[in-house]
């Protein structure tokens, strides 16, 4: 029988485990984000430094909503957004957890109610704080598909 020799993969997992004397610092609020409203004990926030023009905030998807739009949004979300937002939309992605980003919870109906579709579309396009803008990566249709999908977490 061959003696057990740790492979590179096993070794790197061990190194990771050993290196993970993980600091337990709680995730801090991103700079510029202030509580905009308070519902019960829970804090709601709209980033104070977001200045979204009224005509952008009022934008909506001109297309009628379909099952294909929902499916396309889900496909793109799983590909590009789950590393931070998590497949469950709560912000549970490994990348955002690892970076200790302050994440919105898409399943939270009061959070959803703070935003218009146009505002979400604007942030998705331009980015904000650690949220990367997708202007160059996605078509307007793909971005609207994603907004519908983001909305569906709280439906
Ligand atoms: C690198 C991690 C990361 C990735 C990848 C990412 N997001 Fe975000 N997202 C964030 C963070 C952080 C916030 C909170 C930003 C803030 O405080 O305004 C956010 C916020 C949002 C918001 C709410 C607007 C806001 O400012 O809070 C929406 C909608 C959103 N993301 C959609 C998406 C979609 C759709 C994708 C995939 C195309 C995506 N995000 C990819 C980190 C990420």
Global mean pLDDT: 81
CATH architecture of the domain at 65-155: Orthogonal Bundle
CATH superfamily of the domain at 65-155: Cytochrome c-like domain
Low-confidence stretches: 10-42
* Ends distance: 57 Å
* Shape descriptor: globular
Give the biggest beta sheet: 2 strands, antiparallel
Radius of gyration: 19 Å
Strand content: 5-15%
Number of helices: 8
Structural class by helix and strand composition: mainly alpha
CATH class of the domain at 65-155: Mainly Alpha
Bound compounds, please?
heme C
Helix content: 40-55%
The order of strands across the largest sheet is 1-2
Outline the structure in words.
The protein has a domain at 65-155: Cytochrome Bc1 Complex, Chain D, domain 2, CATH 1.10.760. The chain has 155 residues and is mainly alpha-helical. The protein is globular, with a radius of gyration of 19 Å. Mean pLDDT is 81; it is low at 10-42. Helix 3 (67-80) crosses helix 8. Helices cover 44% and strands 8% of the residues. The longest helix is centred in the middle third of the chain and has 14 residues, at 67-80. It has a two-stranded antiparallel sheet with strand order 1-2. The structure holds heme C. The site of heme C has 25 residues, from helix 3, helix 4, helix 5, helix 7 and helix 8.
């Amino acid at each position: 029988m061959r003696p057990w020799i740790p492979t590179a993969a096993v070794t790197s997992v061990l190194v990771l485990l050993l290196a993970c004397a993980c600091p337990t610092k709680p995730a801090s609020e991103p700079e510029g984000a202030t509580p905009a409203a308070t519902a019960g004990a829970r804090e709601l926030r709209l980033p104070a430094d977001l200045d979204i023009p009224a005509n952008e905030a009022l934008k909506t998807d001109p297309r009628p909503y379909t099952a294909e739009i929902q499916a396309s949004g889900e496909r793109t979300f799983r590909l590009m957004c789950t590393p931070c937002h998590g497949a469950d939309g709560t912000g549970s992605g490994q990348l955002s957890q690892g970076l200790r980003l302050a994440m919105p919870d898409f399943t939270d109906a009061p959070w959803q109610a703070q935003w218009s579709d146009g505002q979400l579309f604007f942030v998705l396009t331009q980015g904000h704080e650690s949220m990367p803008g997708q202007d160059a990566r996605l078509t307007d249709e793909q971005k609207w598909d994603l907004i519908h999908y983001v909305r569906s977490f709280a439906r």
